[in-house]
Amino acid sequence: MLEAIKNRRSIRTYIDEEVEEEKIFEILKSAMQAPSSKNSSPWEFVVIDDKEILSNLSKTHHKSKHIKDAKLCIAITGNKERFLKPGKWIHDLGACTQNILLECTNQGLASCWVGVHPKRKVMDKVRETLNLPKNLIPYSLVAIGYSDEENKFIDKFDENKIHKNRFE
Ligand SMILES: Cc1cc2nc3c(=O)[nH]c(=O)nc-3n(C[C@H](O)[C@H](O)[C@H](O)COP(=O)(O)O)c2cc1C
Prior knowledge:
By secondary structure, the chain is an alpha+beta fold. The protein has helices spanning 3-7, 21-32, 51-57, 88-106, 120-130, and strands spanning 43-48, 72-79, 110-115, 136-145.
């Protein structure tokens, strides 16, 4: 198993240490390397490091509180103008968000996916907080920072979820 896959966990506590610009750049490069339907690359990112905006984003819903303590947060949004096939953008942005999480782990950073799409109220709150233009649909938020929390490997493998050829 790839080290980054093995070591990635959702970490929600962060220490007061700056994240290097080069690491943020690497994370965004990995994000844009994700597969997408028809290679449409329908993503656009908002990198947030402003304390007040982070605090506002942390009030998005009951499971977004940890964003307030993160050094930065990346909002992953879909650009409607690049949605080439109905519904596919959701999968594209899922792959993209996962790439971000894995690159964070690879860079020694803690991260946690915060769900946004498809809850209308949550999407509206993110849109308003980030002043998103109409063509950008908020999909997810990823809180990022250094952490002193240990990310223990939990083996999630379950043989019962594997099926061979076809169900009889
Ligand atoms: C679509 C999606 C939405 C999620 N939303 C949240 C969220 O809003 N807040 C949060 O703290 N964690 C969120 N998570 C993280 C999950 O809670 C976490 O991945 C899961 O508990 C498994 O733990 P692990 O990531 O450490 O393996 C989300 C994960 C996914 C894939």
